[in-house]
Amino acid sequence: MTADQRLVMESFSLVWEVDGSQIRCLEKTNSVEMNQGKDLHGRYSELVADCGASGTGKKFAVSFRLYEEECFLTIKARVKNVGKTAIKLGKCHLLHKSGSIDLGEGAEETVALCQTAWVTDNYVKKLYSENNCHRSKTVGLLYNRSHKLAFNCSFMTFDRINTEIAYSTSHNKIHVDGYCDFDDYELQPDQEIESETIGCDWSYDPFASLENWAAKVSHYYKPRIAPKPSVGWLGGWTWRDGFTQQTYEELVLENSAAIQTRLEGFDVTNFWVSIGNLKHMLPGNWTAFNKTSFPHDIEWLVSKLAKNGQRLGFWVAPFWIPDKLSPLFEEHKHHLLKRQGEFVKSNSRWRFGKSGDLPPDERVGFYCLDGSHPDTVDFLKRTFEFYQKLGIRYYMIDFLYTGSGSTPGHFLYDEYFDRSKVKGPEVYREALKTIREAAGEDAYILSSTGTTFQNIGCVDAVRVAPDCGEGRPLIKGMNEYPAMYTINTWNLIRTVSTTMANTYFTDRKLYYNDAFNVMTIDKPVPLNEAIITVSMFALSGGPVMLGDDISTIGEERLALIKKSLPPYNKMAKPADLFDAVYPDWPKIFNLKVEKDWDEWNVIGVLNTEPATIKMELSLDKLELEHGPTYTVFDFWNEMYLGEIKDRLEVEVPPHHIRVFRIARSRPHPWLIGTDMHVTQGGVEIEQLEWNPNKRYLSGVCIRPKEEAGNLFLKLPKGWKPVQYEGLQTAKVPMDKSLIVLKPLAFRTETLTWRIDFEPEDEAELHNLLHVGEERVILE
């Protein structure tokens, strides 16, 4: 394979582990077939090699497809058991480490994307670190930052078998091992099975390579996800406790009414009720409810919320079966996962309800359901069909790693029911597909605490980072106790933003990436922390779950929430993903906002450290052209910062974030920012037009009724408004421009406006040229 007329893949072999031995599938070829065709990736040339010797009991076939329109190769293999006894399959190395990759000079500058398919420990690392050995789940990418060449080796399919990529070096050579692990799967006589498919491409743009991978995967799986990310409310956890202070039901209804009045028009729809709805607050009691916390029937609550245009949602841990305080273990013990003859178990020491009343070492733990067993499927089907009939339309399905096996690999098992399925992804997805179907077409499903990629097609959104922004009830043993919330969690914020950066490319292609989880910003959360939270939610464009008590939150903090709603339809790209590598972390988030009337970049620079950071950002790093002049507006400081041509100089205070809007300068009056939404025009300005002949600027803005906000316009030197009524103006000495503030009051959701401008009189312009400077001197 070549890139830029230079060999980059020097050699490789395909090795399949069978019955404990490694078989090099391409060493002996019985026949080779050449084909041409077209599939969802485009036109290709295909080589199919039929391999294997008679008498071995195994036949292999290997398929290579090279796509004509881009430097893109796919590889998959198939094995057939032609013997009389079952064979055990191990790893199928579609790219074996015996081959090597040449990424050009400066190999010491090569970095590797390392994915865990889990909520933490997703990083870009230097290849020559940690003994020069790294591992990544499903997605693999190497990037030589010196030579600017990327090699992407990622699995195009991953719904049946555990998929991994290992990177290593030896004798100044780079080795990549891309394999899917059948994990001792027994292939019966006269049966055959295919590996997953791996894809390889070469690119000068590592971001584009990752995004193209996600687009190809999306094209293959065609995942069904909700038309827009969820916006909702999680109550009973923060500031007011629905577990110990008042009834959970009362708290839900109060916030339902408050959202209807205080956040009307912002489409806060889904009400996530967690744990308090369950009898004894015990997971597993999915259809038995807590009459103390919810005195009325659940149908009654569903109906009450529906009157406010809201939907009730539940937290569910679908793979959990409690080990005590319930008859569920006896009912389900015949379809639980086992390892070495023992039940697989999560010793969570459940701290809520009846379990929480027990001594810590006697509290409830949980066994893990076998997703391949018909009785598990029936149990999940009955549970979620029951919820569907009740009117439940939002689900946070949690602790999925107890049933997902090899990915991420925290709860491994070797005994399960349906041996025609490979343990791990295929068994796990059987249960998820049941939940997806039983929950109903209009249900929104968020997955958490489990694998990520392998949820594709079964859920609408995936929690790609650990818990962030959640409070906890006033229960002894909680990390927050005797408070309900923890502030200044800078290590956590750094972890979440790092994971958001390293997984950004899957957003809206595989599912919605749910990174920051819960937005909790009311006092006593410090203002700087609240601003970071709002900014990162807005830059992520993902689901929003409000964690504050909306019935009591102050107007100042409520106004901050509104600056992130509704979510924009894209996630920001981490501009420094391949520069700020582990143990450093990405800090620069670049959101390209595109509208019919303009496009611009919203740049967030995050500082989670106790010291000020200073940096220079080149325009090419922000994917902006060199040559044009750009205006820069500081969103949170509501400040015009002037114009730039080649770089942006940034200074961020400790534990803070700065958000800039960077747009091409215009020779006529034009928008430079708003104070209504972090995207500054991405959701609140539908139309903007400059009429050069009649010299006016007009626009159409959209915001919920009774909201208000401001537009910030820049008038280049020589322009002024025809009428000043309803406008506020200020002169900027550095470039002799005018800043015009246009207040907007939304008496209806759609507001149309127009401002007329005219050139200044030349004589008057000459007399007033230095007014700004004179005023500064006099002061």
Give a brief outline of the structure.
The chain is an alpha+beta fold and 779 residues long. Helices cover 17% and strands 35% of the residues.
Structure in words:
This protein is an alpha+beta fold and 779 residues long. Helices cover 17% and strands 35% of the residues. The protein contains 13 helices and 50 strands. Strands 6, 7, 8, 9, 12, 13, 15, 16, 19 and 20 form a 10-stranded antiparallel beta sheet that branches. A 9-stranded parallel beta sheet has the order 32-31-30-29-23-22-21-34-33. Strands 5-4-10-18-17-14 form a 6-stranded antiparallel beta sheet, with no helix packed on it. α6 packs parallel to α8. The protein starts with a strand and ends with a helix.
What is the typical, i.e. mean, pLDDT? 94
Strand-residue fraction? 35-45%
Q: Cα distance, first to last residue?
A: 69 Å
Described by strand count, sense and barrel closure, the largest sheet is: 10 strands, antiparallel
Structural class: alpha+beta
Uncertain residue ranges: 1-7, 765-779
User: Treating each run of at least 4 consecutive H or I residues as one helix, how many helices?
Assistant: 13
The protein's oligomeric status is: single chain
Which value, in Å, is the CA radius of gyration?
A: 29 Å
Total number of beta strands = 50
- Kindly state the percentage of residues in helix: 10-25%
Shape: globular
